[in-house]
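Is this the right way to post structure tokens for a design question? Let me know if I should format differently. Anyway, here goes:
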């Protein structure tokens, strides 16, 4: 795997927060990868009671472009 294909997790949280950040990042051309831990746990018969049920990742090459969006997002949500 070359560096342009490596990802980094930039946020973990609930569905509403993750979808908002996803929309903000995609609006500036950054593709995101979302892992839904609730769905994963349900598929194997476990319940996930964590508030951080989803994880949003982006390509490492997009981190600098995404940084202002992520900072603004975290300020909006008090994170």
């Amino acid at each position: 795997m070359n560096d342009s294909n490596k990802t980094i997790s930039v946020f973990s949280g609930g569905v509403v927060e993750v979808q908002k950040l996803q929309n903000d990042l995609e609006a500036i051309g950054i593709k995101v990868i979302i892992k839904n831990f609730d769905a994963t746990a349900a598929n194997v018969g476990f319940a996930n009671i964590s508030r951080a049920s989803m994880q949003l990742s982006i390509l490492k090459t997009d981190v600098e472009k995404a940084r202002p969006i992520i900072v603004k997002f975290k300020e909006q949500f008090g994170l």
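Format looks fine. Someone answered above. Worth noting: The chain is about 45% helix and 25% strand. The chain has a mean pLDDT of 84.
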